């Protein structure tokens, strides 16, 4: 039996996904993990826009046939002091593992983070993974005169002395990429949307827009799956060891079902090439009733061979128009873009997005 003040790290048992979304299914350990995440987000951001809801957590943590997920809770005595997690892709990117560590603020600088990271890395190593990735997000405006660490992508940097940055560097992780988070206040002025859409249509005579909620139409799902593959190869990932993801109609349907079971609603706007009928661009917004004031901007992609026709702006503007009508409680949209993705950042700026924070993408290769 461990000593009363010993650190104990144990797997969090989560019921199988797909059950009734009632609060009773959230175990004590999972509830403690959720509470730690929520407290961290409230302390840093003052809201829960980035935090999984209980219903999402119940759907996410059991994993699926495409990704295995492990969540561990650390306690000293009966008190929760931290957590770590490991995600393991199963169909593609099978040399990689996603690693995350969180320590309750008053328990930091006591070796708990190091122990949790070691535990997570051991899990990844025993599963044959050789490349670890992790991320952390920081608010804007580091202290004046702060020493900065540049991303290996050549775009973006993070303050060296921030505890999360220092922790990652000390444990052998390299900053490969910096993403910028941005927030858009809603509603977007109708005249701004109308102007941007008119400018876009002037360059897109060979394309038509379509849209759907939650479930891709059967006639488009194969094309949608092909674009999801392109999202994994065309979006900037700097030096991260992320490779092509294999998407087909079955994987799209499973993803849609998981979102629905997690209480997440989605709106998709897409562009079709008139001559071929091919789906060539798409963008996704999601909304959760438990966090009604915030939308999350998910993927946006224009196939490389169809760029230069303002399709990114057109699908985004169309989806914002739809979302404002569908989810009137929403007051803002939160999104993330690689710092080197200047084209998409320019689209967001034109729509009215403002910088909201920075996220470091870290990599460590195991020997």
Report the average pLDDT across residues. 94
Number of strands: 14
Beta-strand residue fraction: 25-35%
Largest sheet: 12 strands, mixed
Distance between the termini: 34 Å
Shape: globular
| Structural class category | alpha+beta
SS element count, helices: 9
The Cα radius of gyration reads: 21 Å
Fraction of residues in helices?
Answer: 25-40%
Low-confidence runs: none
In which order are the strands of the major sheet placed?
1-2-3-4-5-14-8-13-12-11-10-9
Oligomer: single chain
Give, in order, the helices and strands.
Answer: EHHEEEHEEEHEHEHHEEEHEHE
State the main characteristics.
single chain; 367 residues; alpha+beta; twelve-stranded mixed β-sheet; 9 helices; globular
Q: What is this structure's SSE topology?
A:
Blueprint: E1 7-11, H1 28-45, H2 54-60, E2 67-76, E3 79-89, E4 96-103, H3 112-126, E5 131-138, E6 148-150, E7 157-159, H4 163-170, E8 174-185, H5 190-201, E9 207-213, H6 221-234, H7 249-261, E10 265-273, E11 279-287, E12 294-302, H8 311-326, E13 332-338, H9 342-351, E14 354-365
Parallel strand pairs: 4-5, 12-13
Antiparallel strand pairs: 1-2, 2-3, 3-4, 5-14, 6-7, 8-13, 8-14, 9-10, 10-11, 11-12
What can you see in these coordinates?
The protein has 367 residues and is of the alpha+beta class. It contains nine helices and 14 strands. The strands form two sheets. It has a twelve-stranded mixed β-sheet with strand order 1-2-3-4-5-14-8-13-12-11-10-9, with helices on both faces. A two-stranded antiparallel ribbon has the order 6-7. β2 and β3 form a beta hairpin. The longest helix is centred in the first third of the chain and has 18 residues, at 28-45. The protein is globular, with a radius of gyration of 21 Å.
């Amino acid at each position: 039996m461990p000593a009363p003040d010993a650190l104990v790290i144990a797997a969090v048992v989560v019921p199988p996904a797909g059950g009734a979304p009632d609060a009773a299914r959230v175990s004590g350990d999972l509830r403690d993990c959720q509470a730690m995440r929520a407290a961290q987000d409230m302390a840093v951001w003052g809201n829960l826009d980035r935090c999984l809801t209980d219903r999402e957590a119940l759907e996410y943590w059991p994993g699926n046939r495409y990704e295995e997920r492990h969540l561990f809770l650390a306690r000293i005595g009966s008190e929760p002091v931290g957590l770590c997690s490991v995600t393991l892709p199963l169909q593609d990117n099978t040399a990689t593992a996603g690693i995350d560590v969180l320590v309750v603020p008053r328990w930091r600088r006591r070796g708990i983070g190091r122990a949790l990271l070691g535990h997570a890395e051991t899990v990844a190593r025993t599963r044959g993974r050789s490349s670890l990735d992790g991320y952390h997000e920081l608010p804007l405006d580091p202290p004046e005169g702060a020493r900065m660490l540049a991303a290996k992508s050549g775009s973006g940097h993070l303050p060296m002395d921030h505890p999360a940055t220092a922790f990652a560097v000390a444990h052998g992780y390299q900053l490969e990429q910096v993403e910028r988070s941005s927030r858009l206040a809603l509603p977007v002025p109708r005249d701004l949307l109308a102007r941007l859409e008119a400018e876009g249509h002037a360059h897109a005579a060979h394309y038509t827009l379509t849209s759907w909620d939650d479930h891709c139409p059967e006639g488009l799902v194969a094309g949608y799956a092909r674009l999801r593959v392109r999202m994994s190869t065309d979006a900037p990932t700097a030096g991260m060891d992320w490779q092509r993801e294999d998407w087909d109609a079955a994987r799209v349907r499973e993803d849609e079902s998981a979102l629905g079971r997690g209480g997440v609603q989605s709106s998709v706007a897409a562009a079709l090439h008139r001559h071929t009928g091919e789906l060539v661009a798409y963008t996704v917004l999601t909304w959760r009733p438990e966090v009604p004031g915030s939308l999350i901007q998910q993927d946006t992609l224009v196939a490389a061979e169809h760029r230069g026709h303002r399709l990114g702006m057109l699908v985004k503007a169309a989806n914002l128009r739809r979302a404002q009508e569908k989810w009137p409680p929403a007051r803002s949209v939160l999104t993330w873009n690689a710092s080197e993705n200047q084209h998409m950042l320019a689209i967001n700026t034109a729509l009215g997005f403002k910088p909201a924070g920075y996220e470091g993408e870290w990599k460590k290769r195991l020997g």
